[in-house]
Specification:
Length: about 625
């Protein structure tokens, strides 16, 4: 970058800065970003017009992406691409040459398009390829209804560039319109204003009028239908799932209201959830206006809906106020876990909230232990420059981030904490925040004015967990531990004690089995509670983990574990079970299952398990 260009950019940006933004965390210029080739300080995309055809037969998307630009005197614009077939490019509708940079395993290739001072628009004609990492093409057998194929995208962290050429950094924000053509019998939905019925000709038009980060552009195509839950919330799902989804998520409006009462108005108009086929790699993905969710969250008793509270909370922390780079990921997730648990407390009380918090606290303990040889990975602010940002997506960002905010709340008091968070979301709405910007904002708006000292920097920049941590207590869990102990002593269990247990209590019970638990104990518990055939996915998962760990083979549990791993692609579940196999020295068994299950996994899950099991894909 030429020096005068930068200076010019800063003057322009400073000039454009609205007065009411002067207290915002972000400075106007884009920060150094290890996971994107783009040079947004020189020229940056502002709006996308996407025009694509979804071809299920060839399993490709082809079409064009047209961007409106803001050019600060640059002679080229640089975008990110990975595994895309770039066909041709235009500047203001006139053909221009393009240049693809060398391929990098993490980042893909830069795409350089020449522009001049007055270029308003560029267009890229392109096709996706079989190597795309964002798209998962499912055949009919891999869906719930088993009648039609299905496609969904997963953009976070840096996969959007594998289905749209784009400046793929979270600090870029764009609005978009899209025209998407799909087979007539299918319906398309996006992270945008969505249809509620199928179109006659398979053509759908979308509009996202709020500016979002590229990782939040999302598309799903399948034989799906819509059912409202309230005037501004609802569910999309395949036919066999739609009623179950609507019943499970019946509290969505209450969640949105509780969230608004905490931290201000919901800024995205509509909050819908689409229940995807079971191979979806995450619990949920907070695509704006349309959360993508795993069907494993449907337990029949609303017991796993904290996941919906979590994705909803991202409408503030993540989608409205966004981490500037993936090194600042804890700003997205730590705040979201804090907000999620506050929503759960507002709806279901403190005891339920504390149970969720305590399970996260235990996950954090395990994660810190797991990183004992890599303590730098237990810092909130990470340095992922030579790594895949996916490596930072673990319990540290979520649960250490939460613990930091909970400890801060206990130090300053809830009233001040809530006022601070509300103003943080409002002041920084539709912009991005770095960790350093957050610390400045925290000092200026909460700590200094109230004369409070807090070891913020230790929490953020040091490995491990500081001494001054909030201690999370759950009476319900103490009761669970006593029930388990009395079973181990007496070899029998009083089932009246467990009849009203929530999922969280069962999970705590099972995860607390001591090393010395015997196969007879496990058989007796399985006979009493039929854990092996649990329909609640979280309970099943932790039971299978124990079964693998303790070499328990009763009740045909091995068959259930194999079926579960083949059907479900949720990375957290799958990696927990494969890790259990590995730790129990049963990798050979794991690999036999993995050969069968891998074709059903999205690339983000497959990449994690490949590395875990040392599996070489062709
Ligand atoms: Zn999240």
């Amino acid at each position: 970058m030429k020096k005068h260009t930068l200076l010019y950019a800063l003057i322009i940006l400073a000039f454009n800065c609205k007065e009411n933004q002067k207290e915002a965390v972000t400075s106007s210029k884009y920060v150094e970003e290890p996971h994107s080739n783009a040079k947004p300080n020189e020229s940056v995309i502002k709006h996308l017009d996407l025009d694509i055809v979804v071809d299920f037969e060839r399993e490709i998307i082809n079409g064009s992406a047209t961007y409106t630009l803001e050019n600060n005197n640059a002679s080229e614009i640089v975008l990110d691409t990975k595994f895309l077939d770039i066909i041709s490019t235009e500047a203001d509708k006139k053909p221009v040459d393009f240049e693809l940079g060398p391929f990098n395993k993490q980042l893909g290739q830069s795409l350089k398009i020449p522009i001049s001072e007055d270029t308003k628009q560029i267009t890229i004609h392109y096709k996706t390829t079989a190597k795309t990492e964002a798209l998962q093409w499912l055949n009919a057998q891999q869906t719930a209804d088993k009648t039609h194929p299905f496609l969904f995208t997963q953009g976070q962290a840096i996969l959007t560039r594998t289905w749209i050429p784009i400046q793929d950094s979270p600090q870029i924000r764009i609005t978009y319109n899209a025209k998407v053509t799909v087979p007539k019998e299918l319906m398309a939905v996006m992270s945008a204003e969505n249809p509620k019925e199928k179109s006659k000709n398979g053509i759908y038009h979308f509009k996202m009028k709020q500016a979002i980060s590229p990782y939040l552009i999302a598309l799903a195509v399948g034989d799906i239908a819509y059912k409202p839950v309230s005037h501004r919330t609802g569910v999309y799902a395949e036919k066999s799932m739609i009623d179950k989804a609507q019943a499970e998520f019946i509290d969505m409006e209450k969640m949105v209201t509780a969230a608004e009462n905490l931290y201000g108005a919901y800024d995205w108009d509509q909050f819908d959830v689409i229940v995807l086929p079971p191979s979806f790699p995450f619990g949920g993905m907070e695509n704006p206006r349309l959360t993508f969710a795993t069907p494993t969250v449907i337990a029949g008793d609303k017991s796993l809906t904290s996941l919906i509270a979590h994705e909803l909370a991202h409408s503030w922390s993540g989608n409205l106020v966004t981490n500037a780079t993936w090194d600042d990921f804890w700003l997205n997730e730590g705040f979201t876990v804090y907000f999620e648990i506050r929503i759960m407390e507002a709806l279901y009380g403190k005891e339920r909230a504390n149970m969720i918090a305590l399970i996260g606290r235990q996950d954090l303990e395990e994660e810190v232990e797991g990183f004992k040889d890599e303590p730098n990975m237990t810092k909130l602010k990470l340095d992922l420059s030579a790594k895949n940002p996916d490596d930072g997506m673990n319990s540290i960002a979520y649960d250490k981030g939460y613990l930091f905010l909970r400890t801060l709340e206990e130090t300053v008091g809830r009233e001040k904490m809530d006022a601070f968070l509300k103003s943080y979301f409002k002041t920084n709405a539709f912009s991005t925040v770095t960790t350093e910007g957050f610390i400045d904002y925290l000092n200026a708006n909460l700590l200094t004015p109230n004369n409070i000292t807090f070891n913020t920097e230790e929490w953020i920049y040091n490995p491990g967990i500081p001494e001054n941590q909030s201690v999370i207590v759950s009476n319900a869990f103490t009761n669970v531990e006593q029930t388990l102990q009395s079973f181990l002593n007496l070899k029998s269990i009083d089932v009246t004690k467990t009849k009203d247990w929530t999922t969280q209590e069962w999970v705590h019970f099972i995860r607390n089995f001591p090393e010395t638990i015997t196969l007879d104990d496990l058989s007796r518990l399985d006979a009493a509670f039929n854990f092996t055939n649990a329909t609640n996915s979280h309970i099943a998962m932790v039971w299978y983990e124990q079964a693998i760990h303790h070499n328990y083979h009763g009740n045909n549990v091995d068959q259930n574990i194999e079926e579960f791993l083949i059907r479900v692609g949720r990375r957290w579940y799958v990696s927990t079970l494969f890790k259990a196999f590995k730790n129990a020295d049963r990798v050979d068994e794991a690999l036999i299952i993995y050969q069968k299950s891998r074709p059903n996994y999205h690339s983000v899950t497959a990449n994690t398990i490949d590395a875990l099991l040392g599996f070489e894909s062709k």
